[in-house]
Fold this sequence. Notes:
Layout: H1 10-19, E1 26-33, E2 36-41, E3 44-48, E4 56-57, E5 60-61, E6 78-80, H2 91-100, E7 105-109, H3 113-118, E8 126-129, E9 135-137, E10 140-146, E11 163-169, E12 172-176, H4 184-191, E13 198-200, H5 208-212, H6 221-230, E14 235-236, H7 251-261, E15 275-279
Parallel strand pairs: 3-6, 6-7, 7-8, 12-13, 13-14
Antiparallel strand pairs: 1-2, 1-15, 2-3, 4-5, 9-10, 10-11, 11-12
Helix pairs in contact: 6-7
Amino acid sequence: MIVRKWCKQGEALLKEIRETKTDKDEVALWHLGQCGFVYKNQDTVVYIDPLLNDLIEDGETRRWYRWPFEPEQVEADFIVCTHGHADHLAVPTLVGIAKGNEHTKFVIPAAYRELLLENGIAEDRIVCLKAREKMELPGLSVYPVSAAHPVHEQDENGFDLALCYQMVMGDVSLLHMGDTYLTDQLFEDLKGLPKTDLFFPPINGGDFFRTARNCIGNLDMIESATLACVLKVDMTIPTHYDMVMDNTVDPLRFVQILWEMDPAAKCHITGLGERFIYRK
């Protein structure tokens, strides 16, 4: 495993996010590692699945590298989380963001509303999402789809525990898969979505040994590349391959697989803290 380094971090990265300007047909994005990204369109800033704290197991860190800045420094309109695992809905991160920025809203699967309330995040700052119910927010439209992690599972109220999101910012659509396996239900839901500009699938897959360690798997490289081709997305940015020890893969293998399937496919491997601007 090559331990990744930040292209930009700290105040320099925060300043760049703050000062970057985009038009309606552009999205600027920065990778925060794992499934975490910052998206900016015009004046709207969205963080999805940010993990700005440590992951400790048996007294040892599971992270290959440190987070780029503290949660209290985040300036965001919306924090979006896909599901309740600690590397996606990171409670210390969300609590820190809530303390540091009083206008930020937290957009989460409805199943985790009580978790945020229990950790001191005010109810009027929580936006609850349900599968197949579109949510319109200032500068952001979100359409949730039930994810299978590892199966489609609901809580006692019938709310999905894991969601994928098709989001629209300005004129740009983004499909962020979070963590999921591929099922007949999910495949049909994805095929029914409007065409996606930017596609963010996990690529780390799963296997017997990781499952035995209670490390739930994901789409693998072939599945994610095939989805990109079937859905005819404009550009693919793979996720979930770099941060957590014993759960990493080489994203260059994904690029090779995708280009073997479609030599015209567009793909970008993001550097940590790198600014990438997508234009339609």
